[in-house]
Amino acid sequence: MKDIFTAPFVEEMRKTTVNMYRLGWDERNGGNISYLLNEAEVGEYLDLNHVIRTIPLGFDATAIIGKIFIVTGTGKYFKNVDADPETNLGIVRIAADGQTAELLWGYSDGGKFTSEFPAHLMSHMARLSVDPDNRVVMHCHPTNTLAMNYVHELDEKKFTHTLWEMCTECIVVFPKGVGVVPWMVPGGSEIAQATCELMKTYDAAIWAQHGLFVSGPDFDTAFGLMHTIEKAAAIYAEARMLNGSSDEFRNTITDDGLRAIARDFKLDINESFLD
User: At residue 166, does pLDDT exceed 90?
Assistant: First the structure.
């Protein structure tokens, strides 16, 4: 059996949580990540017949029985993951009843997965229905994206359009745009279901006055999506400040310009978000 601490999926979680903390996106115990694993790969590091304990999921995950995830723990700080992954991370398998998770490794202090795990699982299911390669879901609290929530209309078309205008690469990175979930109490079924519905269309969603929720086939794609949205929000904040708190910018990327990018890069964009 190989050493679990050398597993690529553990190393990816360690590197990503360090980066997200370093960028200031995951203060204290903020943020969470889940990664859908390949059973054969996990079997190289763990005895899949050894279940440490079971943990109630709090919702019906029958559609993904048997799926295995590595997930950040509830109440855990991203800054501590690299030094102590076995306490701050866990590898769980959705049990045959669809109502519980079987702990295969981690949460060594008796902890459990993030309180947002239902939102993660619902989003995994939603994304897999449109993209069978989707494996990663991330949530964080990026400063500029959050700040933008307080001055910009929280309309999916308008919010996306502003982000697209801020940086040429934006429409390339998220051609379908970003969804917007209105403010809701975190950790509950309401926000999980609302996010799930949006993730059938988008691979990124704003949680109003809370943070950002993204998905992707791998860590680089999901992290890059999050980073690009936050960079665009930072440019918006800076440009707005230089412009006397006005959104009437002297220069911008026009809709014709956005369509030209889509044409040349052969992108399937959300045309309804253009005028």
Answer: yes
Q: How wide is the angle at C-alpha 91 spanned by C-alphas 29 and 180, nearest 5°?
A: 50
Q: Does residue 164 sit in the same domain as residue 264?
A: yes
Residue 274 has pLDDT above 90, yes or no: yes
Helix, strand, coil shares of the chain as percentages rounded to 5?
Answer: 40, 15, 40
- The residues assigned a catalytic role are 116
Q: Are residues 217 and 122 in the same domain?
A: yes
Question: Would the pTM count as exceeding 0.70?
Answer: yes
Cα–Cα distance for residue pair 221/141, rounded to 1 Å = 18
Give the mean model confidence (pLDDT) for residues 252-267. Answer: 97
Do 157 and 82 share a structural domain?
A: no
Q: What is the DSSP letter of 22?
A: H
User: Domain holding 174: CATH number?
Assistant: 3.40.225.10
SS (H, E, C) 242-258: HCCCCCCCCCCCCHHHH
Domain interval for residue 10: 1-113
